[in-house]
TrEMBL record:
Protein name as annotated: Zinc-ribbon domain-containing protein
Signal sequence region: none
Taxonomic superkingdom: Bacteria
Main location (coarse class): membrane
Biological classification of the source: Bacteria, Bacillati, Bacillota, Bacilli, Bacillales
Membrane topology designation: Multi-pass membrane protein
Pfam families: MamF_MmsF, Zn_Ribbon_1
Amino acid sequence: MVCNKCGKQLAENAKFCDGCGAALNNDPQTEQQAAAAKKEDQDNKVIFVLSYLGILFFLPLVACPNSKVGRFHANQSLVLLITAVGGQIVFSIISAMLWQLWIIMSLVSSLWGLALFALMIIGMVNAYKGEQKPLPIIGNIKILN
């Protein structure tokens, strides 16, 4: 038997999970559905990784619309995209107003891009590992339900 919450292997007669403490439903139909969902999530891992490439955030929503993991990664990548676009707009406006400090603004803008790139890599690695970890700083923002 497998825990529906954490995926840990358990004894057949277990009532609670050793790993996360969740109450177990010993219904074979529910176990089969959970196993099918987990297999689907493993099969769509590449799509979840690709969703972090900017405008491709919608891929999990199209490829596997019923997947909770897919919706999670689509939300994370959408938040990352909005953060990137919004940040670039703000930096452009500030740079236009403070054009005398263009060297400093260029440096800050480059650091901003590097930080976003790091968040993108973190999201991709999490998606590849099959984890649903929120991105640092911006990961708790929920746009897609």
